[in-house]
């Protein structure tokens, strides 16, 4: 996951981690763990879909944010 790209999108849209966590229905601590990849925390498909909808992202944007490190 490219956390810098996600944080950039959040900043451009004026979202804090707290606000995004609320929209996703998870705690701010859990969101932070997912963004930072701590304790094996990852975004699930439903959360990725919500983020795509909230920020009106393209499929390419989603690929660049969440799957960038999977492509060599």
Q: Mind sketching the topology for me?
A:
Layout: H1 3-12, H2 17-24, H3 28-36, H4 45-55, H5 59-66
Descriptive notes:
The protein has 72 residues and is mostly helical. The chain has one domain (3-66): 434 Repressor (Amino-terminal Domain) (Orthogonal Bundle), CATH 1.10.260. It is 64% helix and 0% strand. It is built from five helices and no strands. Helix 2 crosses helix 3. It is globular. The model has no long low-confidence stretch (mean pLDDT 93).
Percent of residues in helices: 55-70%
Biggest sheet architecture: none
Number of helices: 5
Order of helices and strands: HHHHH
Low-confidence stretches: none
Give the integer mean of the pLDDT values. Answer: 93
**Number of separate structural domains:** 1
Which structural category do the helix and sheet elements fall into?
A: mainly alpha
CATH second-level architecture? Orthogonal Bundle
Instruction: Output the radius of gyration.
Output: 11 Å
């Amino acid at each position: 996951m490219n956390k810098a790209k996600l944080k950039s999108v959040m900043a451009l849209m004026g979202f804090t981690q707290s606000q995004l966590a609320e929209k996703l229905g998870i705690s701010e601590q859990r969101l932070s763990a997912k963004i930072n990849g701590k304790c094996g925390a990852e975004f699930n498909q439903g959360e990725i879909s919500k983020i795509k909808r909230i920020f009106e992202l393209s499929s390419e944007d989603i690929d660049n944010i969440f799957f960038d490190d999977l492509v060599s």
